[in-house]
Amino acid sequence: MGKYTKKQNPTGWGDQTKLVRGGLSRSEHGETSEAMYLTSGYVYDDPETAERRFSGEEEGYVYGRYGNPTVSMLEERFRLLEGAEAAYAVASGMAAAWGALACQLKAGDHVVASKDLFGSNYQVITNILPRFGITYTLVAGNDEAAWKAAMKPQTKVVFFETPSNPLLEVLDVAMISRVAHAAGARVVVDNVFATPILQKPMELGADIVFYSNTKHTDGQGRVFGGMILSTQKFKEELLKPFLRHTGPTLSPFNAWVLLKGMETMKLRVEASCKSAAEIADALASIPQVERVYYPHHQSHSQYALAKKQMRLGGTMVAFDVKGAKEQAFNVLRRLKVIDISNNLGDSKSLITHPATTTHKNIGPEARALMGIKDGCLRLSVGLEDAADLIADLKQALSVNS
Ligand SMILES: *Cc1c(COP(=O)(O)O)cnc(C)c1O
Questions:
Q1: Is 94 in the pocket of ligand 1 (CB under 6 A)?
Q2: Is 180 helix (H, G, I), strand (E, B) or coil?
Q3: Are residues 257 and 270 in the same domain?
Q4: What is the CATH number of the domain that holds 301?
């Protein structure tokens, strides 16, 4: 820590103060903003220092794949925000998902996962891990008996996202964590859609939480990043040895962009949530819309749970257009403000047709199991004026009348 870094007690700070000042470690130059250390390696004054660094006797950086001061600032800021013991930054959200799973699983182990998964999460659980002899069971919804029935003596990990992509199913983190822990399994939660601004799964019992920082943390569509939050013990014994040697290193440049993104993350997420709630209300009264999916909308099937578990309803709204693919495509073609994109968590509002993009590869059967219809559209609400977004959706939807 440089001499310009004030000695304060960041664990007592509110989230917004943590987001602006958490992890800040100034160099001897006293720069206001976080410094970007674009270096792959480090030098030593003498061979003894190198020896001590490598033996762990002396703290300090040895190689960019093992650590970087800008990346360390980002990890510390995120760790404070989440209220976790430890944080590990990686190159993307999927590097985080894969690292959190692969660091602790081996052939013969079993994973229990929610059936509602982001496309790449679904591929990892149902296609990639099985190639290494790791089996899985998928469970639907919040049926406690079904989660209990899925547990086996070999179950090591319970994996889910809430709210889920794209239909915003809300899973009961506390209930699933209780069931998992009773079976001796660790709970891994993909908290990308909720963000740590709305929901802190560790407070509800999760052991490991991960993020795609590509989404709301950057929030401005620039860089990739991922983050894994865990106990110190899990990081030291499982994550570090796995990630250091397999190489999903976060670029210091991306870490710097993400540090600056964190400063405004809460303001951006809250603004998008406010618009998303208004949009969900507006969509519910448009005749060309069959159904709206929004966690804090009264029509949501887990409305009470979503109110309890999430501080706000989130930045994502899904809806079924009356009709099928053709009617959904008609709407997409007519939009004048909202962009067609499968990305999300951006300052620009983005809309996608999951059945032909993010959830195309999983096939029609898995889509049917997840309840994803051909008329379904998933909207990521950005920072434009809500009135402009509602007007855009209304005029586009009128094409089907
Ligand atoms: C985008 C996303 C990921 C993967 O993140 P990348 O940064 O694209 O690798 C994982 N889970 C969810 C829910 C996502 O939306």
A1: yes
A2: helix
A3: no
A4: 3.90.1150.10
